[in-house]
Amino acid sequence: MTFCWKGLPGSVLAGLLTLSAGTGVAVADDIKIAHVYGMTGALEAYAKQSHTGLMMGLEYATDGSMEINGNKLVVIEKDTQLKPDIGKAALAEAFGDDDAAIAVGPVSSGVALAMLPVAEEYGKILLVEPAVADSITGADWNRFIFRTGRNSSQDAISNAVALGAKDVTIATLAQDYAFGHDGVAAFKEALAGTGAELAFEEYAPTDTQDFTAAAQRIFDALKDKPGRKFLFVIWAGGNNPIGKIQAMEPQRFGIEISTGGNILAAMKAYKSLPGMEGATYYYYDIPKNPVNDWLVSEHQKRFGTPPDFFTAGGMSAGIAIVDALRKAGSTDTEALIAAMEGMEFETPKGKMVFRKEDHQALQSMYHFKIRVDPNVEWGIPELVRELKIEDMNIPVRNK
């Protein structure tokens, strides 16, 4: 399937239209986009936001037409159920049976890692959003993978800026799968040279309910350390341990809790942590640009709430797809890769750039400090400093 503009070579232009059988009427092809993501399961809230954002991004970038040069954008949804084998099969079905030109997703890093070889097998682009693990655009990457979502290194470096300093000791608590392990490894690397020490690592299953034993091990590792002491939490989805561990009074040992940004529902726990510092990918009130202004206004108008953490990511993916299709002038994969490598595009976070070496979107991150307002349900991440693309040296890990 291809689509083109006037003035392009005839061999390319010929792919723009197909003739309806027996009528001689030119009919534009649909451009199929598969959203393969965890519609059900523990990350369902993330998935819903991501899909809402994707659709709003496609709408915004096409000025509401959901078409590119007369070619209708058709979004196909497939549920990974957060299971790697199902995600792999769903992506193969989208590319092989549904003839999707490009796919977006998934939510889970573990599912994403299973899906990467499918994109290579079919020779079609998988735009990863919002799965985070470094290995997606690192050790397990292939040239058909692009990512608008942030990676573990971007999370880690921005949070290291927020916490790293001389006479600081940190322990981590993370989920025991790719997201957690990659996150801690990147955080440890990012802390090097800041003067801070990462003294202890604790991992817990994603379905953990009781964090008593884990918290006690962390307390024991930090309680006798001099200077400032932090427990840095890397957690996605339900069972977030922050509130439960805060109830165990880590302050008895001089331990402060810190974490990165999250969805608004999860940030309700941040109200018990006034003054907490960390770094976030997105909070609706931080970026000041026309794309975010539109997203905030339209989301509030349509849903009665501000856009959330993953809504912005989904919108960024939608905008990237439209910009790439326009720039390539075709749904041909090689044309899209050529168009997307080094491509700059405007998102709710401002400028993103697909780095040529690994197709990771370079982007701003935001150092915040939590402020509590009794009239707001969640802890408010107030901007301390925007960390721009040029402020962060994000490693290339696919070599």
UniProtKB/TrEMBL annotation:
Residues 31-371 form the Leucine-binding protein domain. Keywords: Amino-acid transport, Signal, Transport. This is Substrate-binding domain-containing protein. Pfam families: Peripla_BP_6. Residues 1-28 form the signal peptide. SUPFAM superfamilies: Periplasmic binding protein-like I. InterPro entries: BCAA_transport, Leu-bd, Peripla_BP_I. Belongs to the leucine-binding protein family. It comes from Roseibium aestuarii.
